[in-house]
Write a structure and sequence with these properties.
The chain is α/β, with parallel strands linked by helices. It is built from 30 helices and 25 strands.
Length: about 725
């Protein structure tokens, strides 16, 4: 117990992927404060420097927090609502969905997913599998999707970002670990005490660049040519692991020929990274076993994203850094445990082949959509079974294509959408298209934590429970060796609000649509208990401990069971990509909108625009609505090299226009010499909760949100995984 009348409960903070252990102080049904829990290992708020847990009470009781179900009473965007009961809202929503399904088919429903703050995405997928729609979509092509898909195609496994004290070298690829991967950064700092080297490949100077032994400042969009040059140098001077390559790698000869097309001198001309630095990076990495590569959204949010991930897999493969402690550790595979995994909960087999083929972009970005899911599962289930399958970010519809389908009704009409754990108007590119698509829907439902620009366009807005108000059972989708669990710490219903966890929302909607036989659990707690009933400990015991290592570390598993690929080896030359008609080896191609490919456009838009580096205080589109946090970072900042700004007569701190061929926004200039003079860095996902919610304001969505000026044309997306160019486009800047 804490102070008189205050109880203290153990939990995990789910505001970001850091998963810090915390103590939650509650007085009756009221949240009092949150503190780090020093008794449980973790990062203790390192990623946000405590900004989130220190201000959680303000966030929890924010004026923007949704408390009761709301039904639209005026036109969409008028901000006119009527409070209704949960039963009223769910009855009406389910009735409309049933009518639309009868008229247009189950595929007429789409669901936008996003950040896993609810951590029950498996129940969302279960609902859709039973409803019959293949059209769940979200940020998968630009967030963890390329990593999971390509790594699983090359390794037959999803590797953990497994830096250990024994790791001798870490290569950070398009990621600022200190903010975005705080647990990994903590492990690196331990490894550094033992002499570990750090190589950073990033066009922008960051906290970890300052700590790096070697910083490769490359031109945005050229990562794959740098990695291919490293591969070529490693092969040419013979410092690859010859025994491992000969026994456990497929396609080395073809790889050597491809890599030879990108010698370090050519890579220097394309990327701007000096050839000597590329050679040095290659030699440090190849001679430092065990070595680990940690990549981030800076890689995946490129049109070359799949090729970059393929190349990083090859680097790990030819140096023998796969499935060894402190290298690319391959965990997961709960086939021999009693745990019921997320993949089992999803009931994917309930979605018939006829419906799978109707998925939007089913036959275009084939590794990302259902064909990729099925082919990867065919090989991965060989050793991992039904419990350990592919990452949940796979087998999804293509986000940019879904919005175009809503507008065109080709190949069929999409008339309904449910957004949960996502804020499309803020987080999805080409905002004007998203706006027009949402306005065209017959039914739009938002299930979220806060009133936001997307919710203002909805027919129903439903209040979601936060991580504080619900149980959690987290295994990172079956690819961690550890389970994390915690009970709800604050009531989900009080006299001041009535919310639902996402399990309950999807279950109650499903029951109304004829799915009752497939939802045997009446609550999320019941479901968690059931999923662990055959484990060595119960869910309640897990919550008491906080975490439990369900799988003991095991390395070089391939020696007894081979890799989960068609050849049983690491596929440097990917037969899976080849089967889909893609290039089986990585390659470099200039971005679709660039000086190289669109020289005429670049005359008007001379700068390369990158965006989206993590702001420490915020998490995606969240936290700007909390004044105590907002004051720490009050306005959006665009980083401009001082020489460039001065040449444009722009002063530090002055508001400027950033314009692309799509549109323009305003952000506040910040002089920054950590980027090249021809590169501009804008912040992402800005909205202004202090502005009116009704149209035309929509909380200022059109003013500073970089997604307003970014294009996501499917013809320019990565051909394999469907990613669009968030980290490289052309722009101009002016007052």
């Amino acid at each position: 117990m804490g102070a008189k009348g205050t109880s203290v409960k153990k939990s995990w903070c789910f505001f970001c992927k850091g998963r810090c252990s915390v103590k939650v102080f509650v007085d009756g049904d009221r949240l009092v404060k949150i503190e780090p829990d020093p008794e449980v290992p973790g990062t203790q708020g390192a990623g946000c420097k405590g900004a989130r847990y220190k201000n959680t009470v303000d966030w929890f009781y924010s004026l923007h927090r949704l408390n009761y179900p709301l039904k639209r009473m005026g036109r969409r965007g008028e901000n006119k609502w009527k409070q209704v009961t949960w039963d009223e809202a769910l009855d009406e929503i389910s009735k409309t969905l049933a009518e639309l399904r009868e008229k247009h088919g189950a595929e007429t429903l789409s669901v936008s997913a996003g950040d896993a703050w609810g951590n029950s995405e498996e129940y969302k997928t279960r609902f859709l599998s039973l409803f019959g729609s293949p059209n769940i979509f979200g940020p998968s092509p630009i967030c963890m999707g390329p990593r999971s898909l390509v790594c699983e195609a090359i390794f037959g496994w999803y590797p953990q970002m497994s830096v250990r004290a024994v790791t001798k070298c870490v290569m950070a690829l398009g990621v600022n670990m200190e903010i975005t991967r705080p647990a990994v950064w903590k492990e690196y700092m331990n490894a550094r005490k033992n002499g570990a080297k750090l190589i950073v490949i990033d066009p922008r100077f960051s906290e970890i660049s300052a700590a790096a032994d070697l910083w490769l400042q490359l031109k945005p969009g050229t990562d794959s040519v740098v990695l291919l040059a490293m591969i070529d140098h490693i092969i040419k001077i013979g410092i690859y692991d010859k025994h491992f390559v000969s026994k456990w790698c497929h396609g080395f000869e073809q790889l050597a020929l491809r890599a030879a097309e990108c010698p370090v001198d050519r890579a220097e001309k394309i990327s701007g990274v000096p050839a000597d630095q590329i050679r040095e990076a290659a030699e440090i990495y190849a001679s430092s076993q065990p070595a680990a590569i940690v990549e981030g959204m800076g890689v995946e949010q490129q049109t070359n994203g799949a090729q970059i991930i393929h190349a990083r897999c090859i680097l790990a493969g030819i140096t023998g850094n796969v499935d060894i402690e402190g290298g690319e550790e391959l965990h997961g595979g709960f086939a021999h445990t009693g745990f019921v995994t997320d993949r089992q909960i999803e009931l994917l087999d309930a979605l018939p082949q006829s419906q799978r083929r109707k998925q939007i972009a089913y036959d275009k970005f084939r590794l990302h959509s259902w064909p990729g899911q099925e082919l990867l599962e065919k090989y991965m289930s060989k050793n991992l079974g039904e419990k350990g399958s592919v990452h949940w970010y796979t087998g999804q519809a293509h986000q940019p294509s879904v919005y175009r389908t809503i507008l065109s009704e080709d190949p069929y009409p999409i008339k309904a959408m449910i957004s949960s754990a996502s804020n499309p108007m803020v987080s999805h590119s080409n905002t004007s298209m998203v706006y027009r698509a949402l306005k065209k829907l017959d039914l739009y439902v938002v299930f979220d934590l806060m009133m936001n620009p997307s919710a203002q366009l909805a027919d129903y807005v439903l209040p979601a429970a936060s991580w504080l108000e619900r149980e959690h059972l987290w295994s990172y989708l079956g690819y961690k060796d550890t389970l994390f669990g915690c009970h709800a710490t604050v009531p989900v219903r009080t006299s001041n609000y009535d919310r639902r966890d996402d399990f309950t929302f999807w279950r109650e909607l499903g029951v109304r649509l004829g799915q009752e036989d497939y939802w045997p659990w009446k609550s999320l707690k019941e479901a968690c208990d059931e999923r662990m009933k055959n484990c060595e400990i119960s869910f309640d015991e897990l919550c008491e401990k906080g975490y439990w290592r369900i799988l003991e570390p095991g390395y070089q598993k391939y020696k007894s069971q081979s890799f989960n690929t068609p050849t049983g080896k690491i596929e440097l030359y990917s037969t899976i990509l080849e089967e889909f008609g893609y290039d089986p080896l990585p390659y470099y191609e200039a971005p679709p909108l660039s000086q190289e490919r669109t020289p005429d456009i670049s005359k008007e838009y001379p700068f390369i625009l990158i965006n989206g580096s993590r702001i420490r205080q915020f998490m995606h589109s969240m936290w700007r609505e909390v004044p105590s946090v907002r004051k720490l970072h009050a306005y959006p900042r665009v980083q401009i090299h001082p020489d460039t700004a001065i040449s444009l007569n722009i002063e530090n701190g002055e508001w400027v226009w950033i314009e692309t061929p799509v549109g323009r926004i305003r952000q506040c200039c910040m002089y920054f010499d950590g980027i090249e003079p021809n590169v501009i860095h804008a912040e992402g996902q800005w909205w202004y909760p202090e502005l009116p919610g009704e149209e035309p304001f929509l909380y200022g969505i059109w003013l500073s949100n970089v997604n307003v000026i970014l294009n996501d044309d499917p013809e320019s997306c990565n051909e394999i995984t469907g990613g669009w160019p968030l980290r490289h486009t052309l722009c101009k800047v002016y007052k």
